Amino acid sequence: MVPEECQFTKEHEWVFVEEGNVAVIGISDYAASELGDIVYIELPEVGSHVKQMDPIGTIEAVKTVADIFSPVSGEIVAVNTDAVSAPEIVNKDPYEDGWFVKIKMNDPGELDVLFDHSEYTEFLGEQEAADADEDDMEEEEE
Amino acid sequence: MSTTIFEKGRSGRRGYRLPENDCPAEGLELPVQRTGPVGIPEIGEQEAVRHYMELASKNYHIEKGIYPLGSCTMKYNPVVNEEIARLEGFAGLHPAQREADVQGALELMYGLERSLSEICGMHSFTLQPAAGAHGELAGMMIARDYFRNRGEERDTVIVPDSAHGTNPASVVLCGFKPQTIVSDERGLVDLDDLAAHLSDRTAVLMLTLPNTLGLFERDIDRIVGMVHEAGGLIYMDGANMNALLGIVRPGEIGIDIMHVNLHKTFSTPHGGGGPGAGPVGVSENLADFLPVPRVICEDGRFALSYKSEKTIGRVHPYYGNFNVFVKAYAYIRTLGARGLREVSENAILNANYLMSLIQESYHVAFPGPCMHEFVASAANLKKHGVRTVDVAKRLLDYGLHAPTVYFPLIVDEALMIEPVETESKETLDHFAGVMNRIAAEAKEDPKLLHEAPRNTPVRRLDEATAARTPDICWLD
Question: Which of A6, A32, B305, B422 is the most exposed place for a label (fewest CB within 10 A)?
C-alpha cells in the first residue's frame, strides 16, 4: 500500500480500498513510531461483524497499550496472522507487511469522513505545531 | 551480572546440619515419591551470606534513596513496626490455634478494622484481601451480590480514563462490563460523559481518588449524587489515600465501598511483590456482604464469626496477611490522629514543592496545585530525540530510582512522580536538581541519555525482545 493512496483516521489508522469494496486496515508510520516497539497484537476473528469506530483489537507496546478502532463497518474477511506472530513487522513496514485486517464494507460512504493523505499530513502538522507552541511558551518562561 | 547461587554451589558443600530423623518413613509412593536429591544449591554459610549481601548492595530500595514511583507511595517503613511484628506472641502464632489462645491477635485485628473504619468514615472493614487489586475484586463481588440480592440486573461498571489500570481488570474478572469515561480539560471526570453513561444498567462507578493525575475530584458531591440517583454504588480505589488522611473521610462524601493499601498508606513494606494487604471498607447497608470470618467482640472477648447469610465468602485462606496487620496497626497507633493528618499534609506539600522545582524543565500535564503526586511529561524533549524512557534510564546513572513512566495513558510521555512525606527538603532538592540537569543534557548531549544507564550492573535491557520471546530459564 502506498500511503498517498490511503485514507486515514484521527486514531492514526490507514484504510486502503481493494476491489470488491474490501478495506485493508493498518496503522500509520507515525502511530508505529509513537507506540515504539510493538510486542503483542490482538485481532478479531474472521467472520465477525464490526461497526465504524468499534474497538476491534489491541496493540501492546513495551510501555503502552492502544485499541484498534475499525474505520468502517462490515465483516472481517481476513486477518494478518503474520503480524500476530511477529508484531515487529508492524514497526518495520506498517503500510505493507504490517496490515491488520481486511473488512468487507457495508457502506463505502463511511469513507467520506476519513482524511485523505494530504489532510492527514496537515493533521499531523497541526499536532506538532501545538507541541511547538507549548515549547515556545516554555522558552519564554525560561 | 551476578552469578546465581546455584552456579556458586559445589557438590558436597554444606552450610547446615539437619537433626536425626526420628519420624517413621510414612506413606509416599511413586510417582509422587522423590527418586533423586532435591535440586538445592550446595554452598557454605559464608558464601550464602556474601551472595545475598552482594545482591542487596546492587539492589535499589527505600533504605538506599528516594523511590518516587507515582501511585505506589514508597514511604519509609519504620523499624519499630518490624520489631513489634517480630514479637514472639505475634510471629510465633499458628492460624489454626484456638480463639482463647490468640485473644491478643484477634484484638489487634479488631482494633485495626475499627481504626480503618474511623480513618475512612466507613461502617466496617474486612482485612482479608492480600493486595489492592484483590480488594477491588472483593469490592466488585460485594456490589454484584448486593444487586443480586435486590433482584436488580445491573451489569456495567463505569471507570474514568484516569483510574488505576487494575480497575477495569477487576471489573471484568467479576463478570461486569467496564465502560470508560473521559477526563475533561481539568483532568477531572467529565460530568457530561458520566451522565451519558449512567443508566439502570450501571452497577458501580469506580473512582480513583485522588486520581492518577494527582487531582482531587472537585465535583465529588455532584458525581456521588448522579451515581446514587441512577441507583448505582460508588467504589473508591483508595491506593492514593496518602493524600487524604485526616482531611477527607470517604464515607462522609458518600463512598459506598473502598479499599486501602496497607503497604502504601500505612507504611508496611512492598517487599518484592508481597505480602501486601488491601482491606475493603463498606457502608452500613453493605456490611452483611463482607467476607467471613469477621472478628467480633462480645463482653470483652474476641471471636471469629461466620454468621452471615449474605457474605460473599472467604477471599483469603485463614484471615489475611496477619504480619502486615501488625505493622500497619503499630504505624497507626504510633502516629495517632494528628500524626496521620500530618502525613498527608506533608505528602501534599512535598509533591507541590517538587513540582515547582522541575516545572520549567518538564511540562506539567495539569498545572496548579496537586495532591500527593503529579504527572510531568518529557514530551517537550522529543524535539531533541529524547523520550521519557531515556530520562528514566539516565536517572539510574545518578543513583536515583525513576518515577512511574508512561502512566496514566492520557498524558503523552508521562512521568508520574510521588515523593511521599518521609523525604527531606534536601532529598527533594537533589532529585529536582538531577531532573533539571538531565533536561539540560537532553538539549546539549542527547547521546548521554540514549546510552543510559552506564553506571548500573547491567546496561539498557532489550525490553521488546524480552516481551516478544521471553526466556525465563537461567540454564539452557
Answer: B305
Q: What is the mean pLDDT of residues A38-65?
A: 93
Could you confirm whether domain B81-335 is CATH 3.90.1300.10?
Answer: no
B-chain CB neighbours of A65 within 8 Å are 409
Q: Which helix (H) or strand (E) is B415 found in, with range? A: strand B414-417
Q: Is B357's pLDDT higher than 70?
A: yes
CB atoms within 10 A of CB B239: 27
One DSSP character per residue, A75-106 reads EEEEE-HHHHH-THHHHH-TTTTT--EEEEES
> Are B468 and A39 inside 8 Å of each other by CB?
yes
| Separation of alpha carbons B161 and A40, rounded Å | 22
pLDDT of residue B395: 98
DSSP for B238-260, written as a single string: ETTGGGTTTT--GGGGT--EEEE
pLDDT tens by residue, A101-123: 999 999 999 999 999 999 999 99
Each residue's pLDDT tens digit, A17-35: 999 999 999 999 999 988 9
Give me the residue from A62, A134, A142 closest to B464, CB to CB: A62
Residue B273, pLDDT above cutoff 60: no
> At the top level of CATH, which class does the domain B337-459 belong to?
alpha beta
Of A39, A134, A135, the CB nearest to B464: A39
The arithmetic mean of pLDDT across residues B301-326, rounded, is: 95
CATH number of this structure's domain A3-141, picked from the four choices 3.30.420.140, 3.30.230.10, 2.40.50.100, 2.60.40.1120: 2.40.50.100
> If you average pLDDT over residues B229-254, what whole number do you get?
98
Check B380 against A88: CB less than 8 A apart.
no
Contact residues, chain A, for B363 at CB < 8 Å: 134, 138
C-alpha cell at B210: 485522588
Place of cell 500500500: A1
**Residues of chain A that touch chain B, judged by Cβ-Cβ distance less than 8 Å:** 36-37, 39-40, 62-65, 87-88, 131-132, 134-135, 138, 141-142
Taking only the tens place, the pLDDT of each residue in A67-78 is 999 999 999 999
pTM: 0.89
> In chain A, what residues touch B380 (CB-CB under 8 Å)?
131, 134-135, 138
